């Protein structure tokens, strides 16, 4: 788990920011978190078969497909709870498409979730490895 504080003057105001902007800022915080933890980012926003993988990166020799979920609070559940079985199935299809398009074979792969909750101080990040 990690926490990234926003700048005092530029911090997002929880009630004023749209869900879309919260998601964009969450993905930026996620990238910063991953780089700090020695992940090598290879692609962002990969779209295939009407699905999208937020971030694709290497964790050493393992190819990791990451889903980023951001929320303002836990009022409606934790961010990772929004990752339904149907969404997981779609992500697996998109990941298979990525590997096929890039001729990736015999590489260990996994699916992780970065669960971000935003407050006035910044994001609290929970990294769930091998989420599904």
Helix-strand layout with pairing:
Elements: E1 2-5, H1 19-36, E2 40-48, E3 51-59, E4 62-71, H2 85-101, E5 109-119, E6 122-128
Parallel strand pairs: 4-5
Antiparallel strand pairs: 1-6, 2-3, 3-4, 5-6
Concise synopsis of the structure shown:
This protein has 132 residues and is an alpha+beta fold.
The domain tally reads: 1
Strand content: 35-45%
Overall mean pLDDT stands at: 85
Spatial ordering of strands, largest sheet:
1-6-5-4-3-2
What is the class in the CATH system?
Alpha Beta
H/E order of the elements? Answer: EHEEEHEE
The CATH architecture term is 3-Layer(aba) Sandwich
Q: Please summarize the sheet with the most strands.
A: 6 strands, mixed
Shape: globular
What is the CATH topology descriptor? Trna Endonuclease, Chain: A, domain 1
Spans of at least 5 consecutive residues with low confidence = 3-10
